[in-house]
Design brief:
By secondary structure, the protein is α/β, with parallel strands linked by helices. It has a single domain, classed as Rossmann fold, CATH 3.40.50. The protein contains ten helices and six strands. Helix 1 crosses helix 6 (149-159). It is globular, with a radius of gyration of 17 Å. The relative contact order is 0.22.
Length: 228
């Protein structure tokens, strides 16, 4: 089975992708390039991790797709009312899953796999996890959901991803100071539906420009293609 594996440059996502491979899935790595809200170091880490992943799994055909996500984030910031700005991360995740599903359908993949750990981020609470995947129709699997961080770190070290994962990269620069951790599906759904035309327009724009690379790929070749 084909799996779209979201890869962020952190510790968790390569481990989740490796678990997918170990369980028989063919991985298609997908990274969201959040320019101008992420540093270039994040992209460089993702490329290094993706090449490392391919090298550790030489018997599978693996690829890295890079999709712009900065316009989605701008749309979220420009659309949400001030009282709802704490839901920025939730809407960001919803958009990520919507675009991941579109990419999955394009390549005939069966599922989306992420490295989410329960409670580690605001969008990964028990209340928010179902909201993040509420707008997709294919399964979104979270193989690390029952692990704690230390267990994931040990797997990362075991499989040889850890030293690359902890290199400097940078975090998203638009995280709200007090993000929503107890979202309500009805409230978020109503807001999303109210502005669905705005979100859909941006999503379609970003889906037109997916960059796909066979692994391994040279960093300089990717940097020649992306905005940073």
């Amino acid at each position: 089975m084909k799996a779209v594996c979201l890869i962020s440059g952190g510790i968790d996502s390569p481990v989740a992708a490796q678990i997918a491979v170990n369980n028989g899935f063919q991985p298609f790595l997908l990274h969201y390039h959040n320019y101008p809200f992420h540093s270039l170091g994040t992209l460089e880490k993702v490329i290094s991790l993706s090449n490392l992943f391919a090298g550790k799994n030489p018997n599978i055909l693996s690829s890295l797709a890079i999709m712009s996500h900065g316009k989605s984030q701008e749309t979220i910031l420009n659309t949400l009312e001030r009282k709802d700005i704490n839901k920025t991360c939730l809407f960001c995740r919803i958009q990520m899953f919507i675009k991941a599903e579109a990419y999955a359908k394009k390549i005939n993949a069966d599922i989306i796999i992420t490295g989410e750990i329960l409670g580690e981020q605001a969008s990964q609470t028990l209340d928010n996890l179902p909201i993040a995947i509420s707008k997709i129709t294919i399964p979104g699997l979270r193989p690390l959901i029952g692990y704690n961080k230390e267990e994931v770190i040990q797997l990362s070290k075991k499989w040889g991803y850890y030293q690359t994962s902890i290199l400097p990269g940078g975090c998203c620069s638009i995280n709200p100071k007090y993000p929503e951790t107890k979202g309500r599906l009805d409230v978020v759904g109503e807001i999303f539906n109210r502005y669905s035309d705005n979100f859909e327009k941006t999503t379609q724009e970003e889906l037109k420009d997916i960059l796909t690379y066979s692994l391994p790929v040279k960093i300089k070749d990717v940097l020649a293609d992306v905005e940073y």
